[in-house]
Design goal:
Elements: H1 8-43, H2 59-69, H3 80-96, E1 107-109, E2 112-114, H4 124-145, H5 149-180, H6 185-194, H7 203-216, H8 228-231, H9 241-266, H10 282-308, H11 316-346
Antiparallel strand pairs: 1-2
Amino acid sequence: MTLLAFDWIFLIEKLVLIVIIISVSLVIAMYETYAERKVAAWIQDRVGPDRAGPWGILQPLADGGKLFFKEEIIPNSSNKFLFVLGPCLAMLTAMMTCAVVPWSSKLELFGRSIDMQIADINIGILYVFGVVSMGVYGIMIGGWASNNKFSLMAALRGASQVISYELAMGLSLIALLMLTGSLSLKTIVEQQQAGLWNIAYQPLGFLLFFVCALAECNRAPFDLPEAESELNMGYHQEYSSMKLGFYLFSEYINMFISSAIMATLFFGGYDVPFLDESKLAVNVAAIVGLVALMLKIFFFIFLFMWVRWTLPRFRYDQLMRVGWKNMIPLALANMIITAAVVLLIKK
């Protein structure tokens, strides 16, 4: 392909889409902190933040400003390069996972058909697993570079937790892939548009995936790497200013993307039940699909928060026992049963 033949408009479209998705992800992550406090207050019969702006809606901006203007402290005994690299890597891997999520059907603008997905690759789920597995390096590097025994212990917990629950998560998705026959997230959504959502075929697979997502995002009751009562804030104990902000933001971005992937894989993605999108105008269908996907995502984010403020934290031995003795056997059984059903149907 020559330089003149290269589609520069396509490149500009993708760059604009990347900027929009990253900006929206950051804004949603910022207001997830506000929603977390309000949900906790509702569950505990309190008011929650109500000082910064009407109903406290400016509280995330106040918190962000506080982190931004705080003194930046790097311990003298730390590995300074890795100390800075840890939160950057956590934030980078959190943002990279949004690249393969189909946010809606195509838009038609200025005579061009714009795909509402950064990259439609036929190994989308493998890409997500690859990037998510790299996210633990941000925790490990930050905990080790701090030269603090509590941070290191929390980082080791985080690494073992991710390894344990990624196995069950992967096995739960193998059963889903047997039914769909594709690793492309967009293809999976289109198949659900033509029939039933995958939650109807894989309820146990979804339950396993959701529990593993809680563990992957370090959310209660699996927040052992951040066990404040045991490990003094965990792996980011020595961090301050925006380095701490990056770690906190990456957790909320992971919640947002995990919710988007669950909605895409099991709940039809941007599909609206009982609505024939082909009867709508192209742009109207795209907007309706985007709104439907965001509503599903917000429901799962609320579910993440509800679980956190309802269930107590596991002990470390309980966490490992649930992962290895409960989740993996259940995922294997679900995979074997699904394989048997698929074989019977083909016969």
